[in-house]
């Protein structure tokens, strides 16, 4: 039997791979006296995806360090966050989360009997908790409540009061769960500092806060439940995992915003303490890495090829997902999944010859709009008024796009520029060159006509999904059928606002980093 770890070893296990710790001295002082009591909470909203293995692997670390760990299924928070979980689905989604989180923990070998599982509504509707919510609301300013939730609560033009309550409830959870520390992503930092500021005003102790880095998604941005291409669902089939990993952003030698490398660092290495690159003998054969740093160095120096990295992650990831898929293959859990996350697009097909059938939804999420980076620009060989551009959209090969920007944007201003590309139009030949997308631009209303390419926020990565506010979910069509005129119908309501933001029916075009805009064409159209 291994000897129990000492305070220093416990501290290392608890804090390894974290981005930040608030209250390090207090943490060490507690570890010298007794075991740490810590909780991790998750709002029961969209389906958990593979990035949830990151906090799961840290929970494994906490247990190795002897911590008393509570997992909170924050069902009430899910409703307060702009009704991300409708009230009628709340119970079903919470039940889904309980089953899938427990299945994830079992797949990485975490003993469930050492964990405490709690639902928010088990105690958040009590008289005492409710009174504390009122007490807190009497000392918290609207400014501080809004600021605290800025990175976590869904931001909309006309925010609901519920979103302002959210940070206060999360702060009170620390007291009512009787813990020493709260663990979460670094996107929770403002809520954590809010708790540190306001809990003492109610006579409650300031807690320790432990923060994970935000792991890039497969497109290079934050992995998100609402951004389909950025995530691998826990129940995705093996062929879907292969397809999504194949499209993942993994540029040779580039270790920045590399979601594939990040998954190895934050999930696979902590679980196994090693990672095997699988490759054919003619390329050097398999190689086992016992430190992440050695793997990252070899990738940066292009000793490890992106294709081999992705294939190796695919094998390791499927080993984690297999027991989860098997568990959710039962009739009861299949029924629960379908009930908790009903498919809005699944309507009964109209019978042949039936009139007045329901028209299909023409909504912005059907458009596959992505951030693109222009790699090269040349004049069309047969048309001086057209450019032929090679644009990186996070796929293995750049797309060829023909645009009519010659008279509006000099060639050198397009080179290496981030643009907004509509990716699921049917490819069509333009003067003999097949165009695989459309660069979306703002156009002036009057004469002389002016055109400006739309600008994604600075810092975006090629391939990152662009969506319309309120339409983050939903899969885009594989290809827009020309006869259906989906793009044309939506485009009729595309406009540039008075502050130069791209909009559909006054709802902003967004990425995870902010709004899509143009330089100067206020009130213009988008085409």
Write structural notes for this entry.
This protein has 527 residues and is of the alpha+beta class. It folds into three domains: 7-212, HUPs (Rossmann fold); 238-340, Tyrosyl-Transfer RNA Synthetase; 369-526, Nucleic acid-binding proteins (OB fold (Dihydrolipoamide Acetyltransferase, E2P), Beta Barrel), CATH 2.40.50. The protein has 16 helices and 23 strands. Strands 9, 10, 11, 12, 15, 18, 19, 20, 21 and 22 form a ten-stranded antiparallel β-sheet that branches. A hairpin with a 2-residue loop joins strand 9 and strand 10. The radius of gyration is 25 Å and the shape is globular. 39% of the residues are buried. The model is unreliable at 347-359 (pLDDT under 50). It holds the Pfam family tRNA-synt_1b. Residues 336-363 are annotated as: Disordered. It is an enzyme of class 6 (ligase). It is found in: Cytoplasm; Nucleus.
Topology record:
Layout: H1 7-15, E1 20-22, H2 24-33, E2 37-43, H3 53-64, E3 68-74, H4 75-80, H5 87-107, E4 115-119, H6 127-137, H7 142-148, H8 161-176, E5 181-185, H9 189-198, E6 208-212, H10 238-247, H11 259-272, E7 275-277, E8 287-289, H12 292-300, H13 306-327, H14 331-340, E9 369-380, E10 383-392, E11 399-403, H15 411-414, E12 418-422, E13 428-430, E14 433-435, E15 438-439, E16 441-443, E17 451-453, E18 465-468, H16 486-491, E19 494-496, E20 502-504, E21 507-511, E22 514-515, E23 525-526
Parallel strand pairs: 2-3, 2-5, 3-4, 5-6
Antiparallel strand pairs: 1-6, 7-8, 9-10, 9-12, 9-18, 10-11, 12-15, 13-14, 16-17, 16-23, 18-21, 19-20, 20-21, 21-22
Helix pairs in contact: 1-2, 3-11, 5-13, 5-14, 6-8, 7-8, 7-9, 8-9, 10-13, 11-13
């Amino acid at each position: 039997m291994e000897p129990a770890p000492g305070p220093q070893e416990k501290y290392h296990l608890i804090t390894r791979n974290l981005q930040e710790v608030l209250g390090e001295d207090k943490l060490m002082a507690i570890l010298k006296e007794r075991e740490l009591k810590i909780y991790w909470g998750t709002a029961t909203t969209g389906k958990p995806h593979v990035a949830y293995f990151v906090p799961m692997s840290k929970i494994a670390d906490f247990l190795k360090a002897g911590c008393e760990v509570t997992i909170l299924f924050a069902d009430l928070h899910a409703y307060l966050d702009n009704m991300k979980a409708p009230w009628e689905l709340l119970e079903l989604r919470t039940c889904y989360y309980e089953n899938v989180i427990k299945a994830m923990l079992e797949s990485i070998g975490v003993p469930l009997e050492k964990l405490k599982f709690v639902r928010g509504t088990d105690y958040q509707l009590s008289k005492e908790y409710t009174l504390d919510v009122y007490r807190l609301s009497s000392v918290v300013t609207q400014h501080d409540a809004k600021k605290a939730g800025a990175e976590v609560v869904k931001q909309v033009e006309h925010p609901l009061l519920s979103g302002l309550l959210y940070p206060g409830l999360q702060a009170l959870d620390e007291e009512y769960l009787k813990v020493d520390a709260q663990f979460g992503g670094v996107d929770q930092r403002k809520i954590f500092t809010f708790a540190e500021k306001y809990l003492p005003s109610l006579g409650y102790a300031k807690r320790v806060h432990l923060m994970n880095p935000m792991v890039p998604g497969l497109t290079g941005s934050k992995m998100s439940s609402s951004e389909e291409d950025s995530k691998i669902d826990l129940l995705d089939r093996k062929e879907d995992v292969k397809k999504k990993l194949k499209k993942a952003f993994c540029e040779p030698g580039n270790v920045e915003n590399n979601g594939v490398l990040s998954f190895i660092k934050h999930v696979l290495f902590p679980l196994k303490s090693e990672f095997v690159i699988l490759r054919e003998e003619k390329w050097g054969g398999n190689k086992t890495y016992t430190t992440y740093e050695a793997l990252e160095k070899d990738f940066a120096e292009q000793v490890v090829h992106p294709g081999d990295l992705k294939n190796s992650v695919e094998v390791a990831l499927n080993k984690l997902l297999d027991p989860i898929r098997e568990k959710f293959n039962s009739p009861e859990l299949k029924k629960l999944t379908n009930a908790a996350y009903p498919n809005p697009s699944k309507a009964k097909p109209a019978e042949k010859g039936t009139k007045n059938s329901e028209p299909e939804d023409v909504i912005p999420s059907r458009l596959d709009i992505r951030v693109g980076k222009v790699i090269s620009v040349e004049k069309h060989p047969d048309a001086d008024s057209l450019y032929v551009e090679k644009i990186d959209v996070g796929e293995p090969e750049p797309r060829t796009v023909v645009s009519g920007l010659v008279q509006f944007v000099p060639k050198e201003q397009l080179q290496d520029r981030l643009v907004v590309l509509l990716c699921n139009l049917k490819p069509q030949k333009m003067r003999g060159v097949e165009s695989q997308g459309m660069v979306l631009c703002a156009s002036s209303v009057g004469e002389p006509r002016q055109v400006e390419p739309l600008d994604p926020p600075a810092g975006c990565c090629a391939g990152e999904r662009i969506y319309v506010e309120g339409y983050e979910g939903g899969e885009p069509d594989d290809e827009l059928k020309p006869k259906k005129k989906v793009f044309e119908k939506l485009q009729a309501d595309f406009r540039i606002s008075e502050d130069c933001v791209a909009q559909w029916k006054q709802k902003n075009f967004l990425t995870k980093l902010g709004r899509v805009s143009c330089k100067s064409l206020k009130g213009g159209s988008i085409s």
